[in-house]
Amino acid sequence: MKYIKHIFCLLTLFLVLSPAMAADQEKENIDLEEILMGHIKDSYEWHITDFMGKPIVLHLPIIVKSSTGWHVFCSNEFAHEPNEQGNRPGPYGLYIANNEVHENKICEMVNGEEVRPFDISITKTVVILFINAIILLLCILIPSRWCRNHKPSDPAPGGFVGMVHMFVMSVYDDVIKPTLGKEADKYAPYLLTCFFFILISNFMGVIPFPPGGGNLTGNITCTFFLALCTFLVTNLTGTKAYWKEIFWPDVPLWMKAPIPLMPFIEFFGILTKPLALMIRLFANMMAGHAIAISFACIIFIMFAINPVSGTLMTVVSVLMSIFMMLLELLVCYIQALVFTMLSAVFISLAHVKEHSASIE
Q1: In the chain, where the domains are located
Q2: What phi and psi values does residue 48 have, to the nearest 5 degrees?
Q3: Tens-level pLDDT at each residue, the chain (360 residues)
């Protein structure tokens, strides 16, 4: 126990003194906005860390179709330092723009006008998406192999397989089956896939080093696609009674003709449900990462004011960062569960049955 205390004290001392040493070595201004947004926004390269003043960067492949045809090259061919216009020039007349319209996007000049080529490059978000997809497949294939080789009467699995079984049974028994009833088995594969993909993406975003460190669910494009999938599953499998309740609900006639007030409200609700899924997941995950990084940035702000204040604030910032990381782990699970639960509710609402009661 005493060795653990000694290690904890040394670690705390290192966390307190390391910013002070960094402040003495480097007095230049620190772009806190760039630190914060650099973790959240997408890029054509994956900045891992800085070692001895040199950045360690994983350069990713660029695949674009410009006015001169298809081009495939590595992102390290773009200049590291921007030119006078703030852009990072590259080959084939392409460059990474630095303006409000096309910030950090590949552009080219065509007839004196800045345009974006057809861009299907492998960006940082895409790489993280592939990594999370591989982990998701492992989480599915490894337990399924155990199930093929064992009988229902065998003892429950342990370790990783047992943990996955626990999550599956928890979500299925507590969320999917009570919500969808007899149709639970039909939609359980989709809902469980959503749950595990979001959970893995959230946890991988908390890990501060590769292959983690990418805030995938903090990217609104990713949450838009997940919400779109729920939107399609909900409305493409909806019953006739579901669509009848939207376009001709059981309300007084003056509320649906000649002015379709209720049909408009019901149809508008079709769009707001996936929108709520998209915004809720995106905002919660992005906010959690932003708050955690902000606590770390407070250290540099205080050291710029006063070294003593910076040293004292380092202890507070480290403790608050640890608390936020623990809270973020809980939020990762809650947001995955909430997205799955609301998707199950929306699907169940689209499977209403015909009823005879009506208001004349």
Answers
A1: 57-119, 124-250+262-352
A2: -90, -55
A3: 555 555 555 545 444 444 444 444 444 455 666 666 666 678 888 877 777 777 788 888 999 998 889 999 998 888 888 888 788 888 888 988 888 788 888 999 888 888 899 999 998 888 889 999 999 999 888 888 888 888 777 787 888 888 888 899 999 999 999 999 888 999 999 999 999 999 999 888 888 777 777 778 888 888 999 999 999 999 998 888 888 887 777 777 777 777 777 778 888 888 888 999 999 998 888 887 777 777 777 777 777 777 777 777 777 778 887 888 888 888 889 999 999 999 999 999 888 776 554 444
H or E segment and range at residue 270: helix 261-305
What tokens appear for 138 in the block? 């492992």
The model carries a pTM of: 0.80
Bridge partners, 55 (sequence order): 50
Strand, coil or helix: what is 88? strand
C-alpha angle 319-320-325 in degrees, rounded to nearest 5: 100
